[in-house]
Structure formats: structure tokens, C-alpha cells
Amino acid sequence: MTVGNRIFLQRNLQAAPYVEAFRTLPAAVVADCMSRLPALTCDIRLMSNPSHSVMCGLAVTVKARSGCNLMLHKAMDMAGKGDVIVVSNEGDRSQALMGEVMTTWARQRGIEGLVLDGSIRDIEGISKMDYHLYAAGITPGGPFKDGPGEINVPIACGNIHVSPGDIILGDYDGVIVIPREDAAQILEAAQAYLIVDERNFALAQRGELEREWIDPWLAGKGVEVIDGRYQG
């Protein structure tokens, strides 16, 4: 087995029963139930114009050499309907990993979305496309196809660990990763948290949002409140 240059055809699909339930939840609500730590870096942002705000599916992971899309091409042929392809690109931004033709192909195949820790091109067309494509930059420079690389191995994308079969949830705020082993527990917590969040939104709309917690919280953090002006 050639480590660093291999393709695994199978994934752990234990989280599949939870995908549709997570699709009803905002990424921010789920992230709050994960100690606010599952979000990809904010430079990985939505580049397209989907008619449905939420992207949710199981991860097909790609570990690509900087600026190379050979394994991405293979992953797009492997991925099934509803999957989300997540690409690690060694943080490179100098070469576009894909453009409008590949994005159109992914959409036609029913792939739920793509998340790239790298750049794209053909933004004029992609920005109007009814699809979920998240990427970290834009450049006209095209990709190489030399390898090596891997498919369906653990990767890091946007500073977050992603295993094949994890749930990938994205909306207009960005993308989060839900570990497959924890999906049931996180879903239960997020559904309960959404009720609280919607209640607070309704209170804010009426001008009745509870604010009594702030001063005791500040006191608990040792903040000194001074009845006076700063002299300096």
C-alpha cells in the first residue's frame, strides 16, 4: 500500500441517518453545541448562488498536492448523490483547483457540494450558479494533474479535521464539520438549542431580550467598573 498516493473506495456511513435532520439546522446553532470549535476558517466562503441555503452531506475527502486536482477529478467520479467533497490543498492559493466546467459536472451528478481549501476560477459563471461551492480564493491560474494524493483518508481543511463520512454542514455563514461518531448526540443538543435561539430572536424583535446576565458575568470575570473618565 502506497501511503500518500492511494484511494479508498469505502467510507464509514454510520452518520447517514442524521443528514436530513441536520439540514434543518443553522450551522451556527450546531457549532454552538460543539463548544464553538467546528467551523472552517472564514476565508473558505460560499462562491456560488444556491437557491437552497443549506448544504448537508457526508464527506468524501481529498488530500491533494498543492495546486493539483488529479485526485479531485477521481473523487468527483466516485462521489454519490448527496455527498460533499472536501479538499485539502496544503493551504495553497496560487492555482485554481477547478472552474465552471467541473462545477457544472458535479452539479449534474447530484453531488451536494464542494469545499476547497484552495482557489477556483471562472467566478463570473460560478457566482451565478445554483450550487454549493465553497473555496478560499480566486485566480485564473489553472491546476496541475501530477499527483500524488489520496481519497477518503483523514484530512485537515480550513484548520479543521475531517474524516471520510463526517457530516459537512454549510450555509451562508460558512462550513462546519460534525464528526460521524458524535452525530446523534450533537443533533439532539442542537435541536434543543434551536428552540432557545428562536425564543431569544423573538424576544429581541419585541425589545424584550434578557440582559440581566451581563453585569454578574462581568463581575465573575473580575472586570472593574469605574464611575468616571479615563485620565490620560
TrEMBL record:
Substrate binds at residues 99-102, 121. Coiled coil: none annotated. Keywords: Magnesium, Metal-binding. Its cofactor is a divalent metal cation; Mg(2+). The keyword Magnesium applies. Mg(2+) binds at residue 122. CDD domains: RraA_family. GO terms for molecular function: metal ion binding. InterPro entries: RraA/RraA-like (IPR005493), RraA/RraA-like_sf (IPR036704). The keyword Metal-binding applies. Pfam families: RraA-like (PF03737). PANTHER family: 4-HYDROXY-4-METHYL-2-OXOGLUTARATE ALDOLASE 3-RELATED. This is Putative 4-hydroxy-4-methyl-2-oxoglutarate aldolase.
